[in-house]
Design goal:
alpha+beta
């Protein structure tokens, strides 16, 4: 989402376990789905980081220009939910809602 012409999401981080069962879907998504590459090509202003984090549940984190971060756990979820989370993080402003 852009506020006054400035895209708010600056970094998208995907963290997962290389051997854990709760990370199976996100591992399959990273190996087989072209969506992440298409997202990176269509949004060059977003830095996309994919890192293993063994022994922990997977999550997707969005860091915004406001300094705020949103972290969403994606353990034991579907590929559709992973896509929804990434789109939601891309389309939100990063501001805290009070």
């Amino acid at each position: 989402m852009a506020t006054r012409g400035i895209n708010q999401l600056k970094k998208l981080t995907l963290r997962y376990c290389e051997i854990g069962g709760s990370s199976t879907t996100i591992r399959n998504y990273l190996q087989q789905s072209p969506h992440l590459i298409n997202l990176a090509k269509s949004n060059p202003h977003i830095t996309i980081i994919v890192k293993p984090r063994n022994g922990h549940h997977p999550y997707i984190q969005g860091d915004y220009v406001t300094g705020q971060a949103k972290v969403i756990c994606v353990k034991n979820t579907t590929e559709k939910r992973i896509l929804e989370v990434m789109e939601m993080l891309r389309n939100t402003s990063g501001r805290k809602i009070v």
